[in-house]
Design brief:
This protein is about 65% helix and about 0% strand. It is mostly helical.
């Protein structure tokens, strides 16, 4: 249930307007400072807005705390920020909160609470929520195992351009896990996952090119792909949660 979606921090989903125009200007300023590498100044403004209950600022403080941007990593603080933002309606915060419950970051590991948040996101059409619900049904760890429904959900998430779902399908076809082994399909989904930013998919593609499985054997291409795959090891925490919002 890895997620994330970022190898470097990116600005992704808008989550509602700030409380007033002045705060909106301040929030925009904090994002520009962040993008320009002025992290301390960005955090100062973001913290001030979070103290005023600005949902986007609260969420971003959670990201800063979780990833240790401009401060020491603090999973407990990140959990509290995401919990507050989630209670205020942030879907991104709900996603991150579900991941933290699942992995036990900043809180006691709680698969049931993680599953509850995942199901809620899936019902709202969130692609990663749909993917994670599919994986829960596949594993049968919280809900009764239902392979057919699980595959449909994972496929739906991939169709919505979920990098995680595409990567999972690639692995399933490569290993013959609950589907017939099919290297051509594995290549297809690993390529899609890589294009969507899932760097681990490059490692899988490298192996398939090296062995000539589902594709013509090509050691040079495998070497190039392995180089890209190594970048996935640079920041594993950044794969777990969603990043900064603008």
């Amino acid at each position: 249930m890895i997620k994330l979606m970022i190898s470097t921090l990116i600005l992704i989903i808008s989550m509602g307007l700030p409380a007033c125009a002045k705060d909106g200007e301040e929030f925009t300023k904090s994002i520009m400072l962040y993008k320009n590498g002025k992290i301390d100044e960005a955090i100062k403004i973001t913290k001030s807005l979070a103290d005023k209950n600005d949902i986007k600022a609260i969420y971003n403080m959670g990201v800063f705390s979780f990833l240790g941007i401009g401060m020491d990593k603090n999973y407990e603080a990140a959990f509290n920020y995401f919990k507050l933002a989630a209670d205020l309606g942030s879907m991104d915060a709900q996603y991150n909160l579900g991941e933290m419950y699942y992995h036990g970051f900043g809180t006691k590991q709680n698969y049931e609470e993680s599953a509850k948040l995942t199901k809620n996101l899936a019902e709202k059409g969130d692609k990663e929520g749909i993917y994670h619900l599919g994986m829960l049904l596949k594993k049968g760890s919280v809900y009764p195992r239902d392979v057919n429904k699980a595959i449909l959900l994972i496929q739906e998430a991939s169709d919505k351009n979920s990098a995680q779902a595409s990567y999972a399908l690639g692995k399933m076809y490569q290993e013959g896990d609950d589907v017939a082994k099919d290297y051509n399909q594995a290549i297809k989904y690993f390529q899609k996952a890589a294009e969507l930013g899932q760097l681990k998919a490059y490692g899988k593609l490298a192996y398939l090119y090296e062995k000539g499985l589902g594709v013509e054997k090509n050691h040079n291409q495998a070497k190039i792909l392995r180089s890209k795959a190594r970048q996935a090891e640079l920041s594993k925490d950044s794969e777990i949660i969603r990043g900064i919002t603008n």
